[in-house]
Fold this sequence. Notes:
single chain, alpha/beta, seven-stranded parallel sheet, 8 helices, binds 1,4-dihydronicotinamide adenine dinucleotide, binds butane-2,3-dione, EC 1.1.1.304, Sc_DH/Rdtase_CS, NAD, diacetyl reductase [(S)-acetoin forming]
Amino acid sequence: xxxxxxxxxxxxxxxxxxxxxxxxxxxxxxxxxxxxxxxxxxxxxxxxxxxxxxxxxxxxxxxxxxxxxxxxxxxxxxxxxxxxxxxxxxxxxxxxxxxxxxxxxxxxxxxxxxxxxxxxxxxxxxxxxxxxxxxxxxxxxxxxxxxxxxxxxxxxxxxxxxxxxxxxxxxxxxxxxxxxxxxxxxxxxxxxxxxxxxxxxxxxxxxxxxxxxxxxxxxxxxxxxxxxxxxxxxxxxxxxxxxxxxxxxxxxxxxxxx
Length: 258
Ligand SMILES: NC(=O)C1=CN([C@@H]2O[C@H](COP(=O)(O)OP(=O)(O)OC[C@H]3O[C@@H](n4cnc5c(N)ncnc54)[C@H](O)[C@@H]3O)[C@@H](O)[C@H]2O)C=CC1
Ligand SMILES: CC(=O)C(C)=O
């Protein structure tokens, strides 16, 4: 087994996942970046290679268990091990409850919940085989602690991520696998561009007005960058967090207080 630890990041082609991957690379991890968007994935991998980051990639859909298994196999084939697995990929949906359609509800749960479950299963299987323990880290949200209007279904998926984070932490503790989650607030990524567009449609707001409105209550006075999330995930991926498991922690600049 190689000396260099390996971190796998789903939805790593852009946004928060890309920020996390960059940070973990600078922390010394070999990186397996995965995304279903091949174009953004290839662009980011090229950028990382130009920065001499030890990176390999896998195109896959987190909502397919066979893709999650193949992602772990890719990591093992390239780097011989999986130490950290980050279930970052996620999608949003903006709609009042009256308008939530069955197909959209299914898709949201398939990606944000089933995808996390399949990722946890594939990662834990490999970590148990290695016998080295490991860290599984899930993308939750402030919406996983407090449901938001127009984001009811999305919020429900993130409450569910919190439940799986707790239960997985309890089940895998004996294998020295910790399971925690990061709960960002308002991060200026493609996801928020789409949420903003959805709010324009349903609430009659001007473009970017929703982003501004949601951001008004941030105690630290600014919206979040992927790097703000990555700084915390760096801790979760490190041995400094060895005594922490089952937690879904707010990293939101002060929006939701538990
Ligand atoms: N942007 C924000 O304000 C917040 C985001 N989050 C969560 O953080 C995570 C990352 O969000 P962002 O970077 O903002 O999103 P993003 O939309 O900018 O990037 C998400 C990436 O995931 C990929 N992806 C989507 N569905 C996939 C699938 N089925 N299989 C594989 N890859 C898939 C996309 O192609 C994209 O590259 C998500 O789980 C999101 O729910 C949580 C709180 C706040
Ligand atoms: C996208 C998201 O999780 C929020 C709360 O903005």
